[in-house]
Amino acid sequence: MKYTEIAVVGGGPAGLSAAITAAKYGAKVTVIERNNSLGGQLRKQTHKFFGSQKQYASVRGIEIADILESQLREYNDNVEILNGATVLGLYEDGVLTIEMKDRYIKLKPDRIIVATGAYEKFLSFPNNDLPGIYGAGAVQTLMNQYGVKPGRNVLMVGAGNIGLIVSYQLMQAGVNVKAVIDAAPKIGGYLVHASKIRRLGVPILTSYTIKEAHGKDWVEGATICKLDENWQMISGTEIDIDVDIICISVGLTPLADLLWQIGCEMKYIPELGGHVPIRDENLETSKKGIYIAGDVAGIEEASSAMVEGRLAGLCAANSLGYIIEDFEEEKQDLIEQLDSLRAGPTGEKILNGLEKVTKVIAGRYGYVD
Amino acid sequence: MRIDNHPILDFKRGKEIRFIYDGKEMVGYEGDTIASALHAAGVRVLGYHHKTGRARGFYCAIGNCSSCLMTVNGKPNVRVCVEELKEGMVVETQRGKGELK
Ligand SMILES: Cc1cc2nc3c(=O)[nH]c(=O)nc-3n(C[C@H](O)[C@H](O)[C@H](O)COP(=O)(O)OP(=O)(O)OC[C@H]3O[C@@H](n4cnc5c(N)ncnc54)[C@H](O)[C@@H]3O)c2cc1C
Description:
The complex is a heterodimer. By secondary structure, chain A is an alpha/beta fold.
């Protein structure tokens, strides 16, 4: 059995920020990341970020990953990084089990910060299992991380930010985007992203859905169809599109299996993307000593994931007794940063969701004495 | 289909890696996963569903969905979207649930 003070599960923007902060205040941290690289989804985000200066606005996601990684390496004495290591289970006695290079490792931390991110939702329609129907994030990974084109002609299903950004990135990679469709009557993503792809001549069809995919062993085409105001297909409005790739971009949902396993109190909050854990303002869950940060706490963006990571790292280090002189001010500053990131129309939805899961948790119990 | 020109990214291909896919010799690059090397070579069907027999490809590409399971060096149910490509690997299309030998 291995021991550590704080185990951080997931090395995306949330996990890295948590680890940097906790290590800065002196805690011994172990970061466990199943990929061979650190940075999570940032590793494939070639576009410049929004947000404020403090969250690296106008820096590309891939560069933010490098910045965070080098900040983490400054605290080498306090930080252990396990790459290619997947956390398989999280047990009642606070033991994490890890598979690393075909070895099985047990780790007993004093605190755990779960920052496992999210996974892409799926959509049901006939033939939706054909090879060539990929998550938009998957296509982003294939192109921007491995330099491989998914195919020749793409139908993008979903006009939220990921759908719009990945459409633009497909064109940057030299792939033809035939159309972006969305079942909602309005484009969900930021208009700057929509305008960029419209200027390149790609139609964005709202109130449209995919009726079915065609093909035997892989995608050979798709039929899309217009929806009425009750989201029902209007017959006679079908359009056949000649594509070999269909990208599904209909939202993300928190990757919270470990939190379920250890019995954290969970609640279904559509505004946050699905089932999320109840937490207090320190981002500690209903299980004592288990903190959360980033998409697993509710689907948002990388900017808020980083601030949440810092907050969880700060509070976990503080709870271990590390002396943090300006703790209350630091914490307040991070909470204010989150508030300002959540100002505006998209933030309103997040705030509504958070209101239902953020509360003072009394009588918490867990593996921590 | 590899990306050759990109306005932002500069793909420095690592050294060539040779592997066997269903008996045929194939080439990928250092840094590839099995799935990215196969996809670049035009292989999209990675397996067949154990009950319906329908073709399967990857979906998430980050190791979550288990849609990309193949047999690698005799070991079944390997998630090839996150398995690093190594010299001499023997990769096979998986039919059925796979058996541990
Ligand atoms: C597919 C996808 C595409 C996206 N595209 C964009 C975009 O184009 N623009 C944008 O602004 N935002 C995008 N986002 C959102 C943004 O990237 C996220 O909000 C942000 O990355 C969240 O950070 P995180 O650290 O919570 O999660 P992630 O960045 O997802 O990091 C989680 C990390 O945890 C690791 N992990 C998960 N489970 C385990 C385990 N059991 N053991 C070990 N490690 C584990 C994962 O490998 C990953 O590295 C995307 C998100 C996803 C999922």
